[in-house]
Write a structure and sequence with these properties.
The protein is about 65% helix and about 0% strand. It has about 170 residues and is mainly alpha-helical. It folds into two domains: about 100 residues, RNA polymerase sigma factor, region 2, helix turn helix motif (Rna Polymerase Sigma Factor, Chain: A); about 70 residues, Arc Repressor Mutant, subunit A (Orthogonal Bundle), CATH 1.10.10. The radius of gyration is 19 Å and the shape is globular.
Length: about 170
């Protein structure tokens, strides 16, 4: 991670100790959140690193009490930017990506669930992962994703309805 020495923090609002504590407290959870969304550990590491770098560059404006929200919001937006950039470059190269088929038969429910979660729209997947896998409250998720609590609840509801319908199909679970 992007850990700093005491000489680098003289006129900043957040101290080196506070910054390093944020690295220790949130880096693993931040990494798990990103890697569950993009399924690429190397890209997830880069996004987490970028998030901490952005935190340090903007440390004067970040309230130490809201550093967790800042980090997850930054990681989310960085992840979305990378996904969009990759899609644009894929379109510009005129690549034809094979579409995933859900006609595969699975015997393991966790495989079915992973496939279903991957088919969710990005924002629904993100709020669902933050709520169900990471255990954040609706309010915390709203702060991280710049959404109202009502929007968060709607996205989670829609994601769960989709998952229930997807997993409930007899041809999926054989």
């Amino acid at each position: 991670m992007f850990v700093l020495s005491n000489e680098q923090c003289t006129e900043k609002q957040m101290t080196v100790n506070e910054y390093n504590e944020a690295v220790e407290q949130y880096s693993d959870r931040l990494f798990r959140f990103v890697v569950k969304s993009i399924k690429d550990a190397h890209k997830a590491e880069d996004i987490v690193q970028d998030s901490y770098e952005k935190l340090w560059k903007n440390v004067e404006n970040v309230d130490g009490a809201k550093v967790k929200s800042y980090l997850f919001t930054t990681a989310y937006h960085t992840m979305i930017d990378r996904i969009r950039k990759e899609k644009r470059s894929a379109y510009s190269e005129d690549l034809s990506l094979p579409e995933e088929s859900h006609e595969n038969n699975y015997s393991d429910l966790s495989e079915i669930l992973k496939e279903a979660v991957n088919k969710l729209p990005e924002v629904q997947r993100m709020v669902l992962l933050l709520r169900d896998y990471e255990g954040y409250s609706y309010k915390e998720i709203g702060e991280m994703a710049s959404l109202s609590e009502a929007q968060v609840k709607v996205y989670i509801y829609r994601a769960r309805v989709f998952l229930k319908k997807y997993i409930g199909k007899p041809e999926t679970v054989i």
